[in-house]
Design brief:
The complex is a heterotrimer.
Chain A: H1 4-15, H2 22-33, H3 38-48, H4 52-59, E1 73-78, H5 81-85, H6 88-99, E2 112-117, E3 129-131, E4 134-136, H7 141-152
Parallel strand pairs in A: 1-2
Antiparallel strand pairs in A: 1-3, 3-4
Chain B: H1 18-27, H2 30-40, H3 52-61, E1 68-73, H4 82-105, E2 109-114, H5 122-138, E3 144-149, H6 159-166, E4 190-194, H7 195-207, H8 209-213, E5 223-230, E6 236-241, H9 246-253, E7 258-263, E8 269-272, E9 291-296, H10 301-315, H11 321-338, H12 346-360, H13 364-379, H14 381-385
Chain C: E1 6-11, E2 14-19, H1 24-30, E3 54-57, E4 64-65, E5 76-78, H2 82-97, H3 113-121, E6 139-140, E7 146-149, H4 158-166, E8 173-175, E9 182-184, H5 201-205, E10 211-213, H6 217-225, E11 230-235, H7 256-266, E12 270-273, H8 274-297, E13 308-309, H9 314-323, H10 337-353, E14 360-366, H11 370-375, E15 390-393, H12 394-403, H13 425-428, H14 435-449, E16 469-475, E17 490-497, H15 499-510, E18 518-522, H16 540-556, H17 566-576, H18 582-588
Parallel strand pairs in C: 1-5, 11-12, 11-14, 13-18, 14-15, 17-18
Antiparallel strand pairs in C: 1-2, 3-4, 3-5, 6-7, 7-10, 8-9, 16-17
Helix pairs in contact in C: 2-3, 8-10, 8-14
Classes of the chains: A alpha+beta, B alpha/beta, C alpha/beta.
Amino acid sequence: MYQTDNLVKDLVETHGRRRESLMPILQGIVEQHNYLSDDAMVEVAKELDISAAEVYGTASFYSFLDTEPRGKYVIRVCKTITCAMKGKHEVIETLEDILKIKVGETTSSGLFTLLETNCMGWCHKAPAMLINDVPYTELNREKIVKIIKDYMHK
Amino acid sequence: MKTKKISKVDLIFEHINPREVLTKACDMSPEDIINEMLESGLKGRGGAGFPTGMKWKLCAEEKNRTKYIVCNADEGEPGTFKDREILDRVAYKVYTGMAIAGRAVGAKKGIIYLRGEYKFLLPQLRMELDGFHKMINEICYDFEIDFRLGSGAYICGEESAMFESIEGKRGEPRNKPPYPTASGLFGKPTVVNNVETLVNSVIILKYGAEKYKLLGTRFSTGAKVFSVSGDTPIPGIYELELGMSLLEFVNEFGDGDTKAVQVGGAAGFCVPRKLFASTVIGFEGVPTGGSMKLFNSSRSMYHVLHNYLDFFAEESCGQCTPCRVGCQQLLKGVESVKRGESKSTYLNELVKLAATMKIASKCGLGQSVGNAFNSIVENFREEIIY
Amino acid sequence: MKKDKMVNLKINNQPVSVPEGSTILQAAKKLNIHIPTLCNHDDLCVAGNCRVCVVEQKGAKVLAAACAQPVQEGMEILTNSMKVRNARKHVIELLLSEHRADCTKCYRNQNCELQTLANEFSFGDHLFLDIVGDHERLIDDASCAIIKDDSKCIRCQRCVRTCSELQKVSAIAVSGKGSDMKISTFHDRPISHVVCTNCGQCVNRCPTGALTEKNYIDFVWDAIYDPEKYVVVQTAPAVRVSIGEDLGYDPGERVTGKMVTALKQLGFDSVLDTDFTADLTIIEEGTELLTRLRKALVEKDKDAVLPMYTSCSPGWIKFIEHKFPEMLKNLSTCKSPQQMFGALAKTYYAQNIGVSPEKIVSVSIMPCTAKKYEANRPEMRDSGYKDVDYVLTTREFAMMIKQAGIDFRMLEPSNYDSIMGDSTGAGAIFGATGGVMEAAIRTAYEIVTGKPVPFDNLNIIPARGMEGVKEASLKIEGCLKEWSFLEGVELKVAIAHGLTNANKVMTAISKGEADYHFVEIMACPGGCIGGGGQPIPTNMTIRQQRIDAIYAEDLSMPIRKSHDNPEVKKLYEDFLEKPNGHKAHELLHTHYVERVRY
C-alpha cells in the first residue's frame, strides 16, 4: 500500500490538477486505500488548490467515496425493491452471521465492511451484492459462504 | 380477453460492421444524418423521451468549436439493467453511435459516464474502445472517446448533474435554461444520449429511417430493450416493439398472479391490474426507460412504496426544497400513517405534496417522485393504511 | 454602447419590457410585483434552490423559479395563481418542518426571513411532520465568534456561496446528499478548527438563525452591574454609520453623538473611541512602512520585505495565516486598532484614571465577528491581562440599547470621554475600503515631504470606491532631507476588499506579477462597513450608503490627519515615547502564526 501523499501525488500526475481531475483522483485513492482519510482529502485539496471542505463535500455526495475507514473488501448489498423482494434480508443475515458484524461495521480484522446500496442493475438476478467492484448475483446462503471464504483466503 | 402476441425484435444486439455504418455516415452531410434521425422519430431511450434528432439539430446549430457527445451510462433507475447488457455485448455500437452523433453536431470528443456499479466492465470496455479508435483512425474519422466513472449517485443520470460530476463537483442538477445543447459540459454545447439511444442511431443509419419507422407506433417508433424483473418466471432483457398494451406484456411475462406493474422504475408509474388492458407502453401511454417490475398478489404495496421513498430520500441531491424535504416527508408520512400515528387522511395531504413536488422541483428526480407515490397511493390506499 | 435587446412579457397580465437575460424576478420587480425569495441574495450568484419564488408560466407543465428563469419573448407569468400559492405554501411548510422553529428564543427572532414568510402565509399548525432531529447534536458553539446551528438551517446555501464567491475560503461547503445533505465544514469539524476566518459574511447572509455570532451581551451586562468593575468601551469607525439601521433609521445615517450618549446611559464607565487607536495605528504603521522602505531601498535588508500589508482586519489575518503563510513577513506587525486600544486601556488609561487594570473590563463594539476571535488570540495579552475582554457586534449593541429601554431617537448627542476619545477624519475612514490607505498616505506623505498630500481637500479619490481591487501610485516629490532616498519614487499601492479580491492580489504578488509597496486588505466587502457584525440585511446599495456616511464623517471632523490628533501626540509624549519605539513594540505590535489549510 502506498503512502497517502505519494499516492495523491501520483494520481495528480496522472489526472491533472484541474477541478475535473477531482473525481478520478478520489476514486483512485479509494481504489488503493478503500476510503478517503482526512489526510488524503487535505492533500488533494492542496494539490488542486481548492478547499478541503469542498473536497469533503464532493466526496460525501457519492456513496462509493467513503470518508470513514473501510475494510479491504467492501460488501454492498443491494436493498432496492427487487432484491428486497428476493431475499436481500437473508443475504444480510447470512453476512452478519458469517462476518460477525452489523450493517455499517467493519470486521476487527479490517478485511470486510458490510454496507447496503441502492439498485446496482442486477434485478433479474436478485438478490445481488458488490464486493469492491465485483458483482455477485442470485445469492443464497451457500453461495455467500463460499464467496466470503474465497475472499478470506485471498 | 383477446390479446395479440407481443413482437420481439433483435436489432440492438445484432452484430453489424461498424466501419460500414461510419463510412456511410461520412458519405452523408451532418444535415442528412440529423434529418434521418428526425425522420425516424427516435425518442430518447433513457426515459425522458426527447426526440433525438431534435437534440442533435439544436446542438448542431450552436456555433462553438468545442462540443461534446456524452453517453449516459449511469443506469441507476431501479429495475433497469439493459444498458449494462448493451455495453457488455455490443459496446462498439455505442461507440459508433457516439461517433455518428459527433459528426452530426460537430463534436470531436465523446465521454461515456459509466456508473460506478459497472466499473467491473471497464477493462473490457477500454480494450474494445482501443480497437474502435484504431478502426476510425483507419477511415480518418476524427472522434475520440473517454470514460468517466460515477461513484454511486443516482442523480448523476440527470444530464446536468452528470456534467457537474464530470467537472469534479457534486452531482447537483443545474437550472435550465440554458439547456445542454446550448451550454452543457464545461459550458459547451453538448448532446447527452442514453446508451440504447446511441445504438438506435446506428440502427437507423444502417437500415434507414423508413424501415425503422415500420416498428412501433406513430408516436413511439422502433423497438425498446426492456429490463424485466420482479415476480416473473422469466426475468431478463428483452427487445420488444413499442406500442404494446400492458396486458399483452403481463400475459407474456407475468406469473399468472400479477397485481401491478411498475413501469419506468421508481420514477415511473405503478399500474394496477384493472388498467393493464388500457395502458399502452410507449410515449403515447406510459413511457419507460425499460424498467418493468411485476408484483404479484403476495407483495405488500406499502413495502414497495416504502422502498421507493427510502431510495428517493437517499438519492435526492438535496439542493431543492421540494425534493429534499418532500421525499423525507413522504417517507416519514407513510410510516406515520402505517403506525397509526397520523390519521389516514394525512395521505391526502401527502398526495397534494407529491403533486407540488411534481411541478416545483428543480429537476426530473423531484418531479417524478410523485409518479410512483400517487399511483401507488391512489390504487392501493388500503395497503398503505392497514 | 450596444443597446440591450428588450424582451416583452406579461406578468399577472401586466405588460413589461426588460433587457434580454433578465430573470422573471427582475421583471416582476420592475412592475413592483413582489415575489418572495429565500436562497436569492443580491450579492451572490443565482441558486434556484429554495423554490419559494416559483411562478406559473402559462402553457408550461412545471413551475419556474423566478430568480433563475430568464425571460422570453411573449412569456405570460402568473405570480399568484392557485398552483403557485399552493406550491409556495408547501415549500414554506417543508422548510419549517426541517427548521427548529423555536422563534421566541431565537437570536434572529423578528429578523428572520423564514419567519417573515411564515407570517405572510399565516400558517396554523404545522402541516408536515417535524424532521429536525436531535437538535442538541446539531449545534456547533465551540467558536468564540460564530455559532452554527444546523437545526435552524434551511439549506439555502447562501453561506456556502458567500464563503466561496465573496471570500474564496470555502470553510463551509455542502456535504452529503438527500436527507443527509447539509452545510458542513471539512469532515464536520467544529468551525473553530477549520480555515474559517470568522469574517461573519455568512452570518450576514443567513436568512435564519442557523449562523449567528456568539453573543456576549450578558457578560457585558454583568460587568456593568458589577460595582467592583470599571467598564471601558470603544466603538469602531463603522459602527456609528450603521447602528441606526437596527434602531429604525435608514442606512447611511450618522448617529455618532447619540451612540455615545446611549453608551453612557447603558452604564459604561468610560466611553472611548477606536478611531483614536486608528489614528495611532496610522502613526505606527506609517512609521513601519517608511522604515521598511528605507531598509529595503537603502540598506538592501533582505528581511525588510515589500509590499507591506495592512493588519487591521482580523479576518484577513486569519486568511493569510491559513492560505499564504509564506507571506506572513509582509504583514505589518501593528496590532489592529481594537487591540492597540485594549493594550492601552489596561496600561496607559488605567494609570491615568488610577484604576487597577484587573478591575478594568474592556469592551469593544465592532462591525465584525472576527474581532471576537482576535480578542481571544493568545498574543493579545500584552497588558498582562486579556487586552479586550468582550467584543460586541453592532447588532448586539443595538440589542442592548433596546433591552435598556432607551429611546435612541430622542437622545441628545454627547462627546467621547478623553484621553482616548479624540479622533480625526483619518481615523473615521478606517471603516471603508481604502480608508486605511488614504489615512496612511495623508500622514506618510506629510512626514516625508513636510507638505499635505497633493489632493484636493485631502480626499485621495483613487483610494475610494467599490471596485474589488484598486491600484494607485503616487510620485513622491520634494522630500525632506531625512527621506531623500524616496525622492522621485513612485509609491505603488493596492487596495482590496473581500477575500476573493485579496486572494487575487496575493496570487498576483506571489507570482511576481505585481510590485506594490503597500497593500491594504479588508476581509469584508466594502471594508468594515460591510463587516460580518453589521446590521442585517446587507447589499451593495446599503454598503454604499454607509460608505458615503463615513466620508461625510471625515469631512465633518475639524482634524483630518492622524498625526495631528492631540491625544495621540500626548500619548507619545507621556507614555509611548516615540513611534515604533520600545514600549510601542511591546504593546502595539504582534506576530502571526502559520495555520493548517482545511
